[in-house]
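Protein modeling request. Please complete all fields; requests missing the sequence field cannot be processed.
Requester role: graduate student
Desired output: 3D structure, C-alpha cell encoding
Chains: 1
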Amino acid sequence: MRKKIILSGWRFTGNWPISRRKALTHPEIQPDKEKVLEGFKTPSPPHLDSDDTPETSRQVRDLAKHRSRPTRRKYSKVAKGLEALEMKVAVQNARITGLEEQMAQVRRGKKRKAVPNPNRRFMALAEALATGEALPDSKKAEIEVDVDEKVESVIEVGVRSEDESDDFMVVTKHCQRTRSGREVKKPRRQ
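Delivered output (190 residues):
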C-alpha cells in the first residue's frame, strides 16, 4: 500500500492515529524485502585471477569502485603511490635513452688515426726517375723501405746541383719500429 492511499483512508474514515510514523512502519503495509534488496543491491566486485594484477593507478581505482569508503581510501593511497612510481620510471627511462644517445655519439666520434704511407716519397722519386724528369728541388729526402716487419731501412738521398757532380750520396740506417710505426730506441737482444 502506498502512503497516499493510507492517508486518504484516514481522511475518509476520520480515524487518525496518534503516531503516524508507527502506523506507516507497520509490517503489514511494508513492501516485500526481496524487491527492496534488489533495488539497493550493488554489483559485486569482479573476481580477480593472478593474471589480473593491476599495473596502473587507473586499474587500482577501478578495483575500488564497489568497495566501502575506508577501503576506497586505502585503494586511492595505493593508486597515488603507483602514479608516483610510474612518473619515476618514465623519468628514468627518458634519462636512459638520452645517455644511450650520448654514448652512441661518443662511439661514432672516435676515428682512427690516418697513417701516412712511408713509401710515398720513394714512389714519387721512382716515378720521377722512370719518366726522366728532373729530381725534386729539395736538398735531402728521407725514404723508408719495408725490409722486414720489425726492421726497416732508411735511405737518405742527397741531391746536388749538376754543377757539383752527378753522384748521389746514399746512407743506409737500420732501425727497429713498433707496429704503430714508432722507432725503438733500445732494440731487443737476441
